Amino acid sequence: MSVDRELEQLKGWSEAEVRQYLAAKVRKMRRDKKLSQEAFAERIGVALRTYKRFESHGNGTLETFVKALKGIDRVHYLFMLFPQEAVKTKARFVQVLDRHTVDLPPQLRTPPGT
Hints:
single chain, elongated
C-alpha cells in the first residue's frame, strides 16, 4: 500500500483501528529485531501481560506506547506530530545561515557569472 493511501485510510479510522494499526507497526518492528514479546517487554520495562494486550488489541496506556516506541528506536519521531516546532527550528537555521553568509568575503557571497 502506498504511503498516500495509508495516510488517507488513517483519517477515516476509528480510535480502535488507529490503536491496532500502531500496535501492528510496533509488532512488525519488534519482530524485525528478532525479539520475542517476552524479551521486548522486559527490555522496555513493561509486564509481559500488559505488552501482549497492547500488541494484540492496541490497548494500553500512553506510557506503554512511549516505552514501546523507545524500544524500537522511534520515539524521536514524535516531534513530527507538532509541525509548528519544526517551522521555528527551520527559521532559526535560516537565521544562523544568514549570519554566517554575512561573514563571508564578498567574492564568495555572489555566485560566479551573476
